[in-house]
Amino acid sequence: MRPRVWQGGLGRLPYPDYARLSHREYGHRVGIFRVLDVLEKHGIAATIAMDALTAQHYPYLVQHCRQRDCEIIGHGLSVSRMITSRMSEAEERDYIHTSIETLTQAIGQAPVGWLGPEYGESERTPQLLAAAGLRYVCDWANDEQPYHMTAGEGELVSLPIALELDDVHALWERRVPVDRYGTMLSECFEGLYQDGAKTGRLLVLNLHPWLIGQPFRIGFLDAALGGMMRRQGVWTAHGSAIVDWFRQHGT
Question: Is the separation of the CB atoms in 49 and 75 below 8 Å?
Fold first, then answer.
């Protein structure tokens, strides 16, 4: 009996897999500018999670994001090196310190927020982030409002991401059709907007320029954001501004 051979699909090639590597770099070279143009069109403040390798090897991208008045937050060393519980405390502390120092040198100031690569954390990550001077973290997807975390030394606020609307989670992993994804963005916003009549709600979208920045996908993001911004009373802000408001007015 002959084994089946499945045709098509994006499989892994022998190293170096230039198709996969250059597909990711598309986000740095093309997709990011397309996404930022859409955000700027709708007056939406962008918070950029940037890893250390990007900060080192794409200085023009750092400069462009700063010129666009983006807030840049920590995103680890690289997407392929995430924090896990297999690290010792010393290794994790050094990982966080190196990430922050590299980003500080690149942008001229220390980042105040953090999104771990692949949302990766160990059981001690919030405490180490707070000890390193970070003020908020986006790894936790368990709420629709900011909240204080138990962080020991320092103070840390969680800005929960809408995980099911993360474009990689929805489009790449779950294979949600892109038109349905655009509808999901609008439906989620509408639900939060209705809830927000009684208590404020937070919609944090984690978007990857190599994916949503493709020319055949960006229009769905554009349309969804346009519908959101036509509603009254919608506030768009950098992560740090949301944290500042929450610390002054939150419980």
Answer: yes
